[in-house]
Amino acid sequence: MDDREHSLGLRGPELEASDAKVFRILCVGDSITFGFSVDQPDTYPRQLLTALAKHYPQRRFEIINAGVPGWSWLQGLRYLDLRGWTSTRI
Question: Which of 13, 31, 44, 83 is the most exposed place for a label (fewest CB within 10 A)?
Fold first, then answer.
């Protein structure tokens, strides 16, 4: 897990190739989700990944941080409609 910029403009590492064995979680929100003013390991999506990996070591997880500072809930909902839910390309 590194801090390089994501090719889709999201915060966090690139997604692995589509794999049915990976449980993918999309975190959509504002600056809190994005982790404004904190390092990558301190964002709540990264903390969620750490907790899930600790409690379920036999599973593989990917957490997608789609937080954008300044977004409202309506913009997040629109993102889900256009890019989220069951999309294979977030």
Answer: 31
Q: Cβ contacts of residue 17 below 8 Å, gap of 6+?
A: none
Cα–Cα distance, 24 to 56 (Å, whole number): 14
- In the predicted structure, residue 34 carries a pLDDT above the cut 80: yes
Q: Is there a contact between 11 and 40 (Cβ–Cβ < 8 Å)?
A: yes
- End-to-end CA gap in the chain: 18
Give the whole-angstrom CA distance, residue 30 versus residue 27: 10
User: Global pTM?
Assistant: 0.74
Each as own residue / partner, the long-range contacts of residues 41-45 (CB below 8 Å, 24 or more positions apart, any chain) are: 43/11, 43/12, 43/67, 45/12
Which carries the bigger pLDDT value, residue 12 or residue 25?
25
